[in-house]
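Subject: Sanity check before I submit

Could someone independently write out the structure tokens for this chain? I want to compare against mine line by line before I put it in a report. The sequence has 265 residues.
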Amino acid sequence: MTVLSASGLRYAYPDGTLAVDGVDVTVERGERVAVLGPNGAGKSTLLSLLGGLVEPDAGTVRYFEETTDADAVRDRLSVLTQNPAEYLFNPTVREDLAYGPAQQDRSAAEVDRRVERVAERLELDGLLSKPPFRLSGGQQRRAALASALTVEPEVLLLDEPLSNVDAANRATILDLFDELVADGATLVVSTPDTELVPHVADRVILVDAAGEVAATGPTREILTDTALLSACSLRPPQVVRLFEGRAGEPPLTVAEAADRLDGTD
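---
Independent answer below. Compare away.
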């Protein structure tokens, strides 16, 4: 089933600068998709357009093959922008996590269940009574993600969700993403980080500096096309660069590289 289908999306900033220019996007249920591009390529704007947070100047977005009204499917769709403060506006972290399911008219017991479950999974249970502004940047990022998850969305649109997150919590979040997709959720992640993409996506939508889609395809195909990435002002993952010129497909991650080297010993 197609959960997101965008056609001819175009958006210009108030000063006339084009952020997104004629973009077509299709996302199927259960996919893990990365919107990859350099800083300033309009990735954040594209995610906001797909999530219905911004109205396009041209083009349409259709949700779940049913409607073009994002508000009509808001319970099924969560959008997490780069700024955690946009999601953390209550006196405590607990209240922020509870806000979404409470708006869905869930029972108090169900709201508490969701808050406790997500907080424990993201290691926020010791921070629930704290004011969000007293959290570190990484803690705020996790709390904002948790607030997006307590509504139990079918589709998650996440803009640089691992920014300012330390290595241990990064691993926790990546494991959680895998679990969500295994349970049937759809994940769309925007990032300029080619090192992250193999861990969050099976398919890449590559955006160039002009806000246009330069290519779309399987993660391995895009990340090993060093000329294409260079044309979009991106560096391939380090292991791809290290294995460039060797026989066979280059690995995308350190783990793949270790397996490759073990196999040649």
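---
OP: Matches mine. For the report I'm noting this point. The two ends are 44 Å apart (CA to CA).
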